[in-house]
Design a protein that fits this description.
This protein is α+β, with helices and mostly antiparallel strands. The chain has seven helices and five strands. The chain has a five-stranded antiparallel beta sheet with strand order 2-1-5-4-3, with helices on both faces.
């Protein structure tokens, strides 16, 4: 008896100090083992539902159904499985991403061990978005230099052949193209560096001149 109590205490100490969540189910499907890691990850008072089925926790009804389905589909194998789940909890702005490992135990008991991988999933999404941003920026930036060079060539070829208002319009139009190309290049560079909008650069503006030009 002493050895059994010592082993039980040793096991409980290990469960209490695991960062992963552990939930053990008896043969009737009731939660008979719940470690503090499970309560911390799910942010729910699971101890209040000890002995009851996981479906009894209102926030975990869908999750419980998915876990039961995974156990049912693994009966033909060795009873172990691993899968990821996205869990939306009330009062939480962001979904909780869990990596869950399940195992069937003797006498119809079951066990799930799960980790919170939300930060890992978020990092993967950020990396994927960053790669998309770099590729998109590259595709946008490619034609900008030819556009600027073409406009400058037109000015070089035609400026001497035009006079008065026509010449002024040509210079102003080419200047607008070149300025907008430079602004686009700056925007694309910022977007490439992780889709950040460039910081605003405030300059004095003559509204009357702008209205006249438009």
């Amino acid at each position: 008896v002493t050895q059994l109590e010592s082993a039980r205490t040793h096991l409980q100490t290990i469960l209490d100090n695991l960062t992963a969540g552990v939930i053990g189910f008896d043969a009737r499907g009731g939660m008979d083992t719940i470690n503090p890691g499970a309560t911390r990850i799910l942010r729910l008072p699971l101890s209040a539902y000890q002995g009851q089925r996981m479906e009894a926790v209102p926030e975990l009804q869908d999750f419980a159904a998915e876990v039961a389905q995974r156990f049912a589909s693994s009966e033909d194998s060795d009873g172990t499985w691993q899968d990821s789940f996205e869990l939306k909890l009330p009062g939480q702005e962001e979904s909780l991403n869990l990596l869950v490992r399940g195992a069937s135990l003797p006498e119809g008991e079951r066990l799930i061990v799960f980790d919170d991988i939300s930060e890992v999933v978020s990092a993967q999404r950020s990396a994927a978005w960053s790669e998309v941003a770099r590729r998109l920026a590259h595709e946008i930036k490619n034609p900008l230099t030819p556009i600027q060079l073409s406009a400058e060539r037109l000015q070089h070829k035609l400026e001497a052949k035009l006079e008065g208002p026509d010449q002024a319009m040509l210079v102003r139009s080419v200047g607008t193209i070149v300025n907008q190309v430079q602004a686009m290049k700056q925007l694309v560079n910022e977007f490439r560096d992780y889709a950040r909008l460039p910081a605003a650069q405030l300059n004095p503006l003559d509204l009357n001149a702008l209205v006249t030009e438009v």
